[in-house]
Amino acid sequence: MSEDIKKTISELHIYEKKLLKELEANPEATPEEVAKNAGMDIKSVMSAAGSLASKDIIEVEKEVQKTYSLTEDGLEYAEKGLPERRILDVLADKKQIQMKDLADETGVDKKETNIAIGWLRRKNWAEIDKGMVNITEFGKDFVSQLDVDEKTLNYLKTNADGVKLFTDDLMNGVKKLASRKNILNIKKETSHSFKILPKGEAILKEGFTIQEQATQLTHQQLKDGEWKSLEYRPYDINAEAPIAFAGKKHPLRVIIDEIRDIFLDMGFVEDKGEYVESAFWNFDSLFQPQDHAAREMQDTFYLKNPLTCDLPDDDLVKLTAETHETGADTGSIGWKYDWSEDIARQSVLRTHTTGISTKHLFEHEPPIKMFSVGRVFRRETFDYKHLPEFHQVEGLVCGEGISYQNLLGVLKEFYKKLGFEVRFRPAYFPYTYLSTETEIYLEEKESWIELGGAGMFRPEVLKPLGINQPALAFGLGIERLAMIRYDVEDIRMLYKSDIKWLREVPLDNGVEL
Question: Fewest C-beta in 10 Å: which of 37, 119, 285, 509?
């Protein structure tokens, strides 16, 4: 025990030692007395007391003393009576009063009548029936006696300097008055007292000297040798230090940058596209019919400004229209409807990033390896797995000899770099054939989870764009990936800016932050 005490003494600040010495001399000393006798300011005394209390050397007791007095409004109520009392006095004679005549009949200000009615009902002095205020039997009993809040009001009136202590009955009145606005002034005075604990007694018994200690050295002290004679304050290298939360990227940004690096390493180039796009690029270029359910207002954000977008090259528009109507020379029979340029011109917030792929195919010559990462927008209801705004990543490869086997190979390599084992199952997407969904294996859940879709673009997509070579495309939702990686059950957590969660998200996957 003695060694522990000596170690504790060696780590005490000079202010802590001064406070202990003062309490040894006068255990009843107040913070103000300690400050005066020890030559310290009150802030230093309380800081030292808090530090000693955290080490179980002393105990700091806090007492809050409240002093109650009346405001100007409170004094007026004490003179004239509370509004409900003034109404009750009139009701004692009239028994009932029309609500609309209450202010005129009782002399109570119109602004106070509603408050007064509330208190009349709360105290059961009156009841309201068909626009009439009627005195109750209970109210009749109080015509000749005061309620506790009225007694307290009178008591405070006779003690204008303020009251600190009340009987239980009057204290109930204080609570009632305090629930009203601008009646009571409540002044709080806080006092502290100290009590030496057994550990503190042991420290005082062991004894210590009070001497100024150096915590840092100046250039001058090192130069003139003064450092040799200084008393140095020791430090506990085993003491707990506050956790330092270094700045880092948002979890979604980490994944986006990781995906971008994977694509770049695989030889892809990035295309960003625009948030506002024409229905032509967002839907028509992907061979989605103009009456497709995905275009409806409940799925898509249509814009009023700009209301429409310009259509691209006339030849492309014409070929797209023919493909939709008859299949043109794609080997398809099309959708068998009259395609509309007006619908194709509609402005939308892009619902996916696949439109970036078709525009890139039109604007570039194969061979092509392109990817895009960006926000997309859909009219979704907020819940634990849906948001109206989220991120989507898209990959595109086009060139001679590209096949479905190449698609599977690219997918395996991409997901391998993300750290997942993958498998594939057949799927349907309106603008690809063959199509597949990618599933990843989660060891901790011992299950396969669908994460993305992929396929070979249909001729109906490629032919109007002037592409005569096969093209594969695949994509996934970044929020879905983030939920899996960070074990998040509710997608909204990714956007809540929960500082505790953001601080605790590990820096993993070898990503440099």
Answer: 509
Q: Number of helices and strands (H, E) in the chain?
A: 22, 14
Q: Is the pTM of this model over 0.85?
A: no
The answer to whether 317 and 247 have CB atoms below 8 angstroms apart is: no
DSSP classification of residue 401? T
Task: Kindly report, residue by residue over 44-71, the tens digit of the pLDDT.
Answer: 999 999 999 999 999 999 998 888 899 9
DSSP alpha helix (H) spans, 448-494: 459-462, 478-485
Using the Cα atoms of residue 427, residue 429, residue 435 and residue 440 in order, give the sign of their dihedral. negative
Q: Does the pLDDT of residue 511 top 70, yes or no?
A: no
* Proportion of the chain in helix, strand, coil states, percent, rounded to 5: 45, 20, 35
The sheet that has 126-129: what strands, in order across it? Answer: 96-98, 132-135, 126-129
Distances (CA, A) of 27 to 86, 94, 189, 200, 251: 55, 66, 22, 12, 55
Alpha-helical regions (H) of 95-164: 102-106, 110-122, 137-141, 148-158
**Is the pLDDT score of 111 beyond 60?**
yes
- Secondary structure element (H or E) that encloses residue 424, with its range: strand 422-426
**pLDDT at site 297:** 67
- Name the strand (E) or helix (H) holding 204: helix 198-206
Integer angstrom CA distances of residue 37 from 19, 33, 58: 10, 6, 19
Q: Which of 104-113, 267-276, 493-502 has the highest mean pLDDT?
A: 267-276
Q: Is the preceding omega at residue 434 within 30 degrees of 0, hence cis?
A: yes
Distance CA(150)–CA(337), nearest Å, equals 84
Strands (E) in 184-225, as ranges, are: 184-196
Domains parsed from the chain with CATH numbers: 1-63+187-241 (1.10.10.10), 72-182 (1.10.10.10), 252-504 (3.30.930.10)
Query: How crowded is the C-beta side of 142, counted as CA atoms within 13 Å?
Result: 23
Among 452, 451, 302, 453, smallest CA distance to 379 is for 302
pLDDT tens by residue, 226-254: 888 877 777 777 777 888 888 889 999 99
Neighbours of 156 (CB within 10 A): 25
